[in-house]
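Lab manual, section 2.4: Encoding a predicted structure.

Procedure: take the sequence of the chain (308 residues), apply the prediction step described in section 2.3, and record the output as structure tokens. A sample record is shown.
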Amino acid sequence: MAYREAKERLRGSIAPVVTPFDEEGNVDFAALAALIDWHIESGTHGISVTGTSGEPSSLTLDERKQVMETAKKAVAGRVPFVPGTGSTNHAETIELTKFAQEIGADAAMVIVPYYNRPSQAALYKHFKAVAESVDIPIIIYNIPGRTAVNLEVKTLARLAEDCPNIIGVKESNKDFEHVNRVLWHCGRDFLLFSGIELLCYPMLAIGGAGSISATANVVPHKVAELHDAWFDGDIKRAQDLHFELMELNDVLFIETNPGPVKAALGMMGKITPKLRLPLDLPSEEHQRQIRRTLVKYGLLAEEPSKTA
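Recorded output:
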């Protein structure tokens, strides 16, 4: 996909699909393919795997490649495919990004390395080397709440200027001034995706390209509809959906993502609700709250009241 074409196609709701596990903790590739079919049938505009919601740090390098390859085959060219290829390890990031190109991914999403807290100069060198190792488009993933370092706007603008295949960023950054400055310094045609659920609509309003939202795992049709409404000029409908989704957004982050999302998908019968330690499902109290919210949204039937 040429960079200009990529900028036109990579828009809307790109769902960061969870990695399903079976009861023994093995990757459930059949469930992953079924989830992707459900997403595309529900109107999702693009598919991503092995991002934060996909528990990449709990997967081996080979498992990450197998998940990416399974997802690429399941997508089958119906929508753009944008796997997450970043890690704390520079060489592994390049290896995974090259693999994404090899299997025909439309772009790669590369996270700011987590835990090791690189300087802005080191981040520039890291992302520039990754971008230069491939020809496919790169979307940088900035999530300071997980990585303990923020990719500053000036660093991102320098990368966008020096690396023509760095075409966008997923901003999981609650600083709305920061995301405004991204478009100001990187250019209005730079792809800005929201990774903060409550900023999905506001980012569209300033010229954002879409969202890569964990909530899309549970209500892909609603998140896609919000974007469709915006792009169709139905601002009122997009605003209504923004507020309609707020309670669900909140409960899906009641504990660390993707625990609540996987619990919800388990209740909906989409996956076995299993995570790999050190992550786990939410507490029983929080699971009851998730269930009540799913019932309220019509995603689960209300359980009959228990009699004494």
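Check your result against the sample. The domain at 4-297 is CATH 3.20.20.70 (TIM Barrel).
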